């Protein structure tokens, strides 16, 4: 589902939209941290939607080729939080939740457009119109990839957000597992991505695609 496989005219529209999705994801982390008492992100200029403050080159490349990716993590100082363990979980979850919010907006727009008699008539009349095809394809991809970003980031492997949520849940019962995941998680994640890319078998996509399909159907009434 890599973006590079799409029509170039769709890429021109979709890439900046997805850059916004990544920036919104990181902004949500910073906003939640600030709301819970930590202003580190704000003080470092990360409480912004400016993509230059958030984009990670490797994460952006993975997004382009694989359809999911990440941005630079927002800095958080746990000592400023009233309840560090639970507050960190809330901050971690804010990122995926923001992408689900964007996907919900995209899905609702799709439902409105598809259900509109005007759009149906337009699609019938302008069946050969590239503009209409591009609008719908972009909106579908925007919704789908925002869902994929949310689900992907909920995988409990560092440095993804799911690892912070997972660690907060089990650190008191199994601190050794949390420590090992923190140590070896990034290597496992990059290994899965690279192996899947080179053998042309999207290992991570196999894991997240059922969830993406579920939310795509829930939000837009469409499957892919």
Structure description:
The model has no long low-confidence stretch (mean pLDDT 81). The radius of gyration is 19 Å and the shape is globular. By secondary structure, the protein is mainly α. 71% of the residues lie in helices and 0% in strands. It is built from nine helices and no strands. The protein starts with 7 loop residues before the first helix and ends with a helix. The protein has one domain.
Features:
224 residues, mainly alpha, 0% strand, globular
What is the strand and helix layout of this fold?
Layout: H1 8-35, H2 40-43, H3 57-66, H4 84-115, H5 117-125, H6 130-153, H7 161-170, H8 175-198, H9 203-220
Helix pairs in contact: 1-4, 1-6, 4-6, 4-7, 4-9, 6-9, 7-8
- Amount of beta strand: under 5%
Number of strands: 0
Low-pLDDT residue spans: none
What count of structural domains?
1
Helix/strand class: mainly alpha
**Spatial shape:** globular
Tell me the radius of gyration: 19 Å
Q: Largest sheet at a glance? A: none
Q: What is the helix content?
A: over 70%
N- to C-terminal distance:
10 Å
- What is the average of the pLDDT values? 81
Q: Give the SSE order as H and E letters.
A: HHHHHHHHH
Give the count of helical stretches.
Answer: 9
Quick structural overview:
This protein has 224 residues and is mainly alpha-helical. The protein has helices at 8-35, 40-43, 57-66, 84-115, 117-125, 130-153, 161-170, 175-198, 203-220.
